[in-house]
Amino acid sequence: xxxxxxxxIALSMDALAVSIGLGAKKGSVPLALKAGLFFGIFQALxxxxxxxxxxxxxxxxxxxxxxxxxxxxxxxxxxxxxEGLQEGEDEIAEITNQTLLALAIATSIDAMAxxxxxxxxxxxxxxxxxxxxxxxxxxxAGGVLIGxxxxxxxxxxxxxxxxxxLILMGIKFLIF
Length: 176
Fold this sequence. Notes:
Elements: H1 2-26, H2 29-56, H3 58-61, H4 65-85, H5 97-115, H6 125-175
Helix pairs in contact: 1-2, 1-5, 1-6, 2-5, 2-6, 4-6
């Protein structure tokens, strides 16, 4: 279960980084709850989709699952590190439900790929996805609230941290 918690925290870093940016624009409790719900729901659903997609092709690729999980997590992690190092993110003009939906989908695409790795963990995929959703909700809601005072300092660092953790998890799948 500890692997699921680490995975959840790592996958939540994209949503946390975006939430901090949202908080810098308009940090409020209602926005924090709404962002937490949007990001949490999509971060919970996408790994489930990835898990079931992976299960359907498992017979064809059973001998390569460790390599595939490694490559997917390493690529996702490298992308997150790269994006965390970039400066000057696009400004969000207005925070609407449509904006939150688009951001939730964009930040959870990597979770769908990471869901493939759930087949390698000794845990129920439903429990894993629920855990990912709850942790993402908490980090996203907290990100909005702290973003008002510290957006410039934290936003990129959260994404870099999450990327490094995903790369390390990919290496763990490859080694063990």
